[in-house]
Design goal:
CATH superfamily of the largest domain: Nucleic acid-binding proteins
Number of strands: 10
Shape: elongated
CATH topology of the largest domain: OB fold (Dihydrolipoamide Acetyltransferase, E2P)
Helix content: 10-25%
Structural class: alpha+beta
Largest sheet: 6 strands, mixed
């Protein structure tokens, strides 16, 4: 059985969110007033906060199969020297354009959005949302 807490203000909702994340939960589920539905429901919302940070592009990998000719991911390191890969958000055309210019992007700062950091400081579920001075 999962505990349910009635909330009547944004402040209370935010306070509970802080408590849940401090306890190690990913976020909170918000159920709007209404009857239970035994399926996906627009009255049940998931709240997870994301963070973003700038990292220097160190390399890249090309996609395979139906993603051939596009960027599969960029390679980065965190401040402790731990490597990680990050997918890139964008259309097929955008990812193909990035692959053409990828060698010139090495050393450029990219904004990586992610859920949180692992104990090693590596972004969890990362994806590139912007590349500095690109376009």
């Amino acid at each position: 059985m999962v505990e349910t807490t009635e909330v009547n203000s944004r402040e209370h909702l935010d306070e509970l969110y802080g408590e849940y994340t401090e306890q190690g939960y990913e976020g909170q589920m918000i159920r709007l007033d209404g009857p239970y539905e035994n399926k996906r429901s627009p009255k049940l919302l998931k709240r997870k906060e994301f963070m973003d940070k700038e990292y220097k592009i160190l390399g890249y990998e090309e996609g395979e199969g139906n993603r051939a000719g596009t960027i599969k991911h960029f390679k980065f390191e965190n401040e402790y020297g731990r490597p990680f890969n990050s997918n890139v958000k964008g259309s097929f055309e955008y990812l193909a354009d990035l692959l053409e210019k990828a060698d010139d992007l090495i050393g450029v700062e990219a904004t990586v959005k992610f859920f949180n950091l692992t104990p090693d400081g590596v972004p969890r579920f990362p994806y590139v949302i912007a590349i500095r001075d690109y376009e």
